[in-house]
């Protein structure tokens, strides 16, 4: 059936400022909603107060109100705009709470506005702890023993029956705000008081402890014809007791039997129907006892969440986009899958790869903060990686954290016995260290609460490490196995010092023809061809394996480097910059390739750039896309000026980049028609020569410096990077004028005179005052 004809104007409520537990993923979902609704010919009014978001750009809504997301301001917008419906399920807990307040204040009835996606009753049934518990039990599901309390006296009475420890879960909060595990009476008084204060309805659920149980999530979608699909199953590597946003998660679920998964699926669908989420997506969390297999339902979010953004990027199934279409009347079988272009959204995604998400913390910014991970979310961002196996995806995700440790063995082992029981950032390193020191898989699994299957996978890496160290020769078969297991060149170089660093390992690997191939996220395990270029790299066992990359056009391409996981000081504003870079370059006639590992962002969506790869934004990763011998999509230039501070080099020698204050640039009509930067010297290898399509290098003999000058110390003898010749190729010109000619790249030594004036190209020698380049890029 077609969309509803009684809805012509929809108001979308955003999530407001970024907070822990509510970040870039709601800009992603809100942006998708605005795009879809406008494409359907509806008028869209948006309310959001975050200036760093893409959704607050004027072109994404017909009317954008940069106002606080509160009932008072929302009522003023409703009075001015008079929308037919409000979509609040894509703006996080802030939007959901605001919509409930509008209903309770009588605003929705007064102006005749309908809540779509999930009505008030469905929201209350999903968010109210007592009502949700009764619904789960009514459909035959199991829940932990619990009691709903509204005062400290009720809390104490409930604990006298349940016994300690207990879990405290406030109602209508986000990111686990106010929740916690109370082990002692002192913990109970502190956490229950905080939870009652955090809940807008002064309500907490006191729940029997399921500490140490295995935790799972299901992402589900439903239309108004009662068709339901399970988009993705997600398993937490960390046991219950750690918020799912702070846990390493894996998709699809790895340690469930088929019987357990089918039971979880049936319960999830029954709960979704009983709660009454008529259209759209929801997230349901489960706990499974590791010994008895008892399955209990923990909670439900009748809206998109951070896990929804992860599931969207992991499967290629655009949850927010489809949820918006379902909300205005379409059914799952009527919505086409954008990835395949043939199958409907009623087809459940199938993964022929493994996805691993690792959270990013900022405890180094707050030395006094408690680093213990609990049911209250503390992570500020996350990185996602895809691989052909769990170890490969885990290794790629660990290298995406941009911390001092970028994978096993890349930093000295800490002193003392590794503590695998403590739920802290970096526990995965402690697990590996304990296994390497001789502790058994069963012992580590029992102490950490991590499922033995995951511990065994890490133990296999320690065995591979020993094999690499003991091998007389690192031959092609062993090197390919190491790469297949997710080990980086740097990790291998740590084990084989004779290669003198990762460059030596890389040289050997290239000589042996061991290079990654690029696979496609197609939602259907290659049953149908993918129409969208959404890729991840992998090392195949078969040396003749080919990349699943479509034939490339001759259209010039620009490689755009994303900023990686959100963290303090570098967040959603760089996603904004990357998306606008794509838009500007598309207008200028370029194709774009986005490289980023952040699953929360708009920039990593499959339909933002011409091509997208879920990878860390490091020079070694990006060189695969630029090197002619291994490139799946050769790039004419690479740009890092939009995505935050470059990964290496001094700040003074870096190209100008976007900042948080530049999240509102001048109108795109005044942007330069060409906005690209030349590839910069990495300081560790020979500078790449430009492709033939760019101005050829000078054919003159390399200029000779004066005797008093010294060579640039940034790298090998072939690498010269003087400041005077390392300027950007960005050209700025007025409409109707010819572009300024670009300078040819230099291949010989480079010397800077300290003057801001570029030396004449006819100059063959530097002056006596020349000084060596002081920046190694």
Radius of gyration from the alpha-carbon trace, in angstroms: 27 Å
What do the pLDDT scores average to?
Answer: 79
Strand count, sense and closure of the main sheet? 7 strands, antiparallel
Shape: globular
Spans of at least 5 consecutive residues whose pLDDT stays below 50 are: 627-632, 634-642, 645-656, 664-777
Strand tally is 22
Tell me the distance between the termini: 58 Å
Strand order of the largest sheet: 14-13-10-11-12-15-16
Question: Treating each run of at least 4 consecutive H or I residues as one helix, how many helices?
Answer: 20
What is the subunit organization of this protein? single chain
**SSE class:** alpha/beta
């Amino acid at each position: 059936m077609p969309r509803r004809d009684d809805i012509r104007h929809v108001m979308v409520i955003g999530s407001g400022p970024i907070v822990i537990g509510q970040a870039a993923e709601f800009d992603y979902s809100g942006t998708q909603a605005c795009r879809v609704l406008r494409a359907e010919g509806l008028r869209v009014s948006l309310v959001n107060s975050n200036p760093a978001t893409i959704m607050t750009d004027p072109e994404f809504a017909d009317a954008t109100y940069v106002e606080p997301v509160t009932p008072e301001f929302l009522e003023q917008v409703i009075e001015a705009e008079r929308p037919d419906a409000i979509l609040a399920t894509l703006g996080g807990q802030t939007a959901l709470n605001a919509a409930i307040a509008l209903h309770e204040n009588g605003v929705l009835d007064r102006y005749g506005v309908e809540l779509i996606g999930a009505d008030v009753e469905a929201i209350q049934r999903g968010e109210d702890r007592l009502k949700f518990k009764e619904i789960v039990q009514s459909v035959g599901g199991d829940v932990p023993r619990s009691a709903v309390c509204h005062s400290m006296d009720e809390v104490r009475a409930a604990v006298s029956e349940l016994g300690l420890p207990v879990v405290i879960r406030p109602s209508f909060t986000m990111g686990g705000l106010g929740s916690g595990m109370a082990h002692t009476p002192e913990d109970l008084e502190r956490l229950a008081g905080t939870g009652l204060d955090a809940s807008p309805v002064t309500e907490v659920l006191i729940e029997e402890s399921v500490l140490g149980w295995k935790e799972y999530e299901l992402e589900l979608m439903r239309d108004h014809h009662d068709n339901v699909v399970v988009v993705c199953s997600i398993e937490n590597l960390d046991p219950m007791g750690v918020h799912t946003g702070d846990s390493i998660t894996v998709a699809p679920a790895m340690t469930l039997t088929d019987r357990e998964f089918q039971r979880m699926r049936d319960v999830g669908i029954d709960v979704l129907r009983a709660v009454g989420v008529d259209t759209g997506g929801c997230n349901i969390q489960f706990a499974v006892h590791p010994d008895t297999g008892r399955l209990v339902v923990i909670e439900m979010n009748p809206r998109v969440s951070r896990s929804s953004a992860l599931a969207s990027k992991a499967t290629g199934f655009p949850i927010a986009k489809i949820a918006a279409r379902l909300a205005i009347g379409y059914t799952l079988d009527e919505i086409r899958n954008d990835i395949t272009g043939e199958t409907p959204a009623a087809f459940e995604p199938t993964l022929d790869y493994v996805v691993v998400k690792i959270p990013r913390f900022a405890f180094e910014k707050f030395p006094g903060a408690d680093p213990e991970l609990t049911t209250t979310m503390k992570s500020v961002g996350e990185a996602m990686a895809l691989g052909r196996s769990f170890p490969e995806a885990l290794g790629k995700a660990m290298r995406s954290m941009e911390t001092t440790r970028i994978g096993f063995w890349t930093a000295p082992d800490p002193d003392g016995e590794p503590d695998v029981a403590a739920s802290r950032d970096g526990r995965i390193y402690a697990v590996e260290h304990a296994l390497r020191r001789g502790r058994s898989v069963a012992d580590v699994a029992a102490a950490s609460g991590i499922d033995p299957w995951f511990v065994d996978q890490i133990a296999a890496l320690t065995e591979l490490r020993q094999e690499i160290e003991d091998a007389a020769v690192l031959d092609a078969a062993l090197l390919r196995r190491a790469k297949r297991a997710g080990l980086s060149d740097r990790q291998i170089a740590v084990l084989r010092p004779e290669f003198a660093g990762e460059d030596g390992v890389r040289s050997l690997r290239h000589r042996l023809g061991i290079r990654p191939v690029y696979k496609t996220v197609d939602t259907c395990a290659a049953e149908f061809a993918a129409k969208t270029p959404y890729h991840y790299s992998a090392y195949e066992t078969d040396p003749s394996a080919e990349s699943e990359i479509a034939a490339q056009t001759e259209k010039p391409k620009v490689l755009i480097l994303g900023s990686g996981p959100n963290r303090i000081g570098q967040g959603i504003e760089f996603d904004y910059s990357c998306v606008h870079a794509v838009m500007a370059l598309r207008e200028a006639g370029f194709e774009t390739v986005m490289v980023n590992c952040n699953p929360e962002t708009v920039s990593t969506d499959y339909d933002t750039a011409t091509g997208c790869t879920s990878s860390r934004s490091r020079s070694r990763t990006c060189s695969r896309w630029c090197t002619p011998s291994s490139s799946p999509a050769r790039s004419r230039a690479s740009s890092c000026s939009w995505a935050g501070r470059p990964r290496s080099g001094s700040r003074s020698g870096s190209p100008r980049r976007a900042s948080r204050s530049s999240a509102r640039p001048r109108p795109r009509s005044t942007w330069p028609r060409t906005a690209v930067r030349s590839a910069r010297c990495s300081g560790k290898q020979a500078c790449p020569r430009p492709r033939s399509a760019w101005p050829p290098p000078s054919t003159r003999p390399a200029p000779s410096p004066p005797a008093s000058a010294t060579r640039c110390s940034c790298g090998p003898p072939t690498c010269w990077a003087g400041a005077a010749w390392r300027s950007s190729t960005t050209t700025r010109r007025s409409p109707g004028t010819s572009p300024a000619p670009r300078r040819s790249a230099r291949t010989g030594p480079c010397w800077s005179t300290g003057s801001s004036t570029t030396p004449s190209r006819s100059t063959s020698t530097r002056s006596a005052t020349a000084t060596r380049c002081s920046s190694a890029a």
